[in-house]
Structure to design on (659 residues):
């Protein structure tokens, strides 16, 4: 039998069916090719339970009878075919007739571009971007295993800035390159995290209800325009993290749901296959072809778009069958437990493939439970993620900062408890979009007190976040103390920067980023207990917390003092590990940030033990402030040369004595 033209080899099919094909986007979907001297498009779609599949589009007046695909001879369930004469930009869908007589018009799961919503067809596309970030990628590869600072700015591209004079429209990818890139650079963030850029039919879903998993939303431009934006970030030394949503997908008729007339991509049993929180459908992680689809999708964004990492959404919902489900509404695993063993296996495969293929990238889990070893290697029984959002820190910190000042002394454990588990995972501290929507209020208006106290509290919260072990992420608008909840229709309220207090918040965040990057003690050992030492967390009456941040032996030690009350305290003594001068290098109460201007300058430690330390210093504590001090000198260590000299002298003395 003469086999028809195909991009797929027998080896491709074996990998696909075993759940190990991680480059499916190179073979599936639509591809511009030349066959028998004719230029056209090769199509391949997985629809194993279809009765027939055809390609319809603007080239054949959407006629389902004119261009039929044929099923492969290998029982893989893939339908394929070549259509001569089609070009880049051709609009199309797959017309699928089910075995039950139902006709479905589906977008291409592997399409690189989709029509701009509300249109729902796929578009034949090939990439044409001249990347200029080889230096960045080389540095990223060479930095594997080396500690580096992570300060992340989370952005919803569709609402970071709106053009009011043009119908309050969103910025395009290229306009974001002009405005967002220099802003992130100026603010000192090391990375930007883009909420899902993948095509989605419903704008208010913020991108989390994906239909076009391999296509950036056409609302903001062509695929090359997004590549241009990422290239510009890399040119400025800024890493790009993309939100990735392998947890669920919507039930839109043109999407993955009920794709070939059966539950193909989703679990067939709705006790597993339907997600009640989001009215969406859960991928079948036990189906090998679905695993190949998802991991190929992850690697696609790392490959074709040079993303520096993926933040994986809603990991907890994938790990547990009973997530947001009542008793009797979920199905246990084969051992009778609640864990989704197939999703656990999927995460291990995904992370091994991502890190193995693209050294230097990072995967980040939004995981809100105490599931063990999320950021431990799969070889050690972990899931293999690089970092995990520290949801416990976020919840406890916001609960504490919301409290009236008079009650904080009874709840200091909400601030100190995170250290008990801070080094069990590689944590990222999130103040994300989820905390400023759905009637939760803006961060600023979570804070108690009068106007001055609200802003002072917010500065103290950010100081607490940046100085805490781990890395940090802040959602757009938080850096200017936005006074209203985030709205995807309105975006960030930039006119607030005309007011001194809001400008002070922005300057404080900028100062925090600059300080953080310049002080290795804050990130060299940010995931290790070696980089942190308690001084005191026991002064609940005054709401004071003190600790040290440490890097290598040659890095200056930082003393962090957090005063979460509104009074000023004179000569407040704090134990320090060694003598000499301790100089104030950062203070959220600085007038430049909207504070009262109470500072310490340089102070000298006395040999007076306190808090288990040999020395102590008397500080003036401003109201509602986080202060950082640098200085003092550790005891000098004997060099190897000195030790060797001492040994030689000892040996000489022994020889003389023997004679």
């Amino acid at each position: 039998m003469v086999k028809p033209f195909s991009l797929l080899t027998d080896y491709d099919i074996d990998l696909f069916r075993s759940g190990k094909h991680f480059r499916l986007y190179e073979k599936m979907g639509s591809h511009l090719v030349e066959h028998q001297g004719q230029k056209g498009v090769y199509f391949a779609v997985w629809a194993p339970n279809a009765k027939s599949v055809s390609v319809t589009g603007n080239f054949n007046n959407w006629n389902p009878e004119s261009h039929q695909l044929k099923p492969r001879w290998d029982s893989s369930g893939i339908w394929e075919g070549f259509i001569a004469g089609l070009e880049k930009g051709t609009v199309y869908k797959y017309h699928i007739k089910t075995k039950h007589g139902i006709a479905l018009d589906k977008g291409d799961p592997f399409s690189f571009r989709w029509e701009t919503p509300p249109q729902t067809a796929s578009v034949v596309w090939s990439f044409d971007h001249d990347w200029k970030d080889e230096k960045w990628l080389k540095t990223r590869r060479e930095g594997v295993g080396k500690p580096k600072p992570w300060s992340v700015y989370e952005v919803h591209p569709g609402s970071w800035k709106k053009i009011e004079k043009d119908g309050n429209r969103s910025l395009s990818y290229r306009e974001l390159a002009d405005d967002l890139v220099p802003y992130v650079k100026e603010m000192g963030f090391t990375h930007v995290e883009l909420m899902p850029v993948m095509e989605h039919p419903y704008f208010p879903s913020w991108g989390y209800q994906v239909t076009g998993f391999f296509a950036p939303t056409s609302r903001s431009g062509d695929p090359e325009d997004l590549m241009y934006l990422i290239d510009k970030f890399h040119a400025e030394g800024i890493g790009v993290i993309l939100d990735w949503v392998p947890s669920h997908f919507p039930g839109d008729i043109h999407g993955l749901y009920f794709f070939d007339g059966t539950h193909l991509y989703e679990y067939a049993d709705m006790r597993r296959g339907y997600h009640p929180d989001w009215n969406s459908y859960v991928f079948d992680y036990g189906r090998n072809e679905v695993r190949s689809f998802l991991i190929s999708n992850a690697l696609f964004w790392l490959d074709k778009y040079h993303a520096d990492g993926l933040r994986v959404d809603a990991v907890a919902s994938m790990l547990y069958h009973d997530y947001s489900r009542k008793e009797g509404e979920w199905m246990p695993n084969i051992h009778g437990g609640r864990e989704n063993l197939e999703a656990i296996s999927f995460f291990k495969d995904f992370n091994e493939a991502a890190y193995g293929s693209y050294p230097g990238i990072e995967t980040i889990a939004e995981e809100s439970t105490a599931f063990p070893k999320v950021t431990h290697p799969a070889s050690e029984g972990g899931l293999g993620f690089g970092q995990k959002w520290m949801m416990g820190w976020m919840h406890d910190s916001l609960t504490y900062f919301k409290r009236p000042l008079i009650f904080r002394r009874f709840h200091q454990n909400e601030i100190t408890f995170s250290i008990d588990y801070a080094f069990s995972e590689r944590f990222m501290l999130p103040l994300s979009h989820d905390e400023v929507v759905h009637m939760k209020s803006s961060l600023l208006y979570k804070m108690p007190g009068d106007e001055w106290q609200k802003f002072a509290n917010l500065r103290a919260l950010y100081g607490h976040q940046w100085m805490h072990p781990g890395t940090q992420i802040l959602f757009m608008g938080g850096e200017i103390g936005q006074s209203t909840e985030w709205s995807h229709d309105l975006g960030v309220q930039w006119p607030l920067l005309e007011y001194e207090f809001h400008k002070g918040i922005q300057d404080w965040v900028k100062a925090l980023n600059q300080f953080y990057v310049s002080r290795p003690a804050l990130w060299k050992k940010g995931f290790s207990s070696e980089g942190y030492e308690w001084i005191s967390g026991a002064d609940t009456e005054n709401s004071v917390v003190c600790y040290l941040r440490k890097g290598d032996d040659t890095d200056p030690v930082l003393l962090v003092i957090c005063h979460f009350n509104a009074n000023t305290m004179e000569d407040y003594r704090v134990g320090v590990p060694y003598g000499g001068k301790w100089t104030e290098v950062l203070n959220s109460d600085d007038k430049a940030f909207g504070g009262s201007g109470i500072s310490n300058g340089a102070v000298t430690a006395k040999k007076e033990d306190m808090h288990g330390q040999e020395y102590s210093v008397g500080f003036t504590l401003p109201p509602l402030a986080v202060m950082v001090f640098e200085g003092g000198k550790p005891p000098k260590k004997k060099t190897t040369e000195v030790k060797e000299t001492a040994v030689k002298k000892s040996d000489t003395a022994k020889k003389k004595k023997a004679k």
Q: What stands out?
A: The two ends are 98 Å apart (CA to CA).
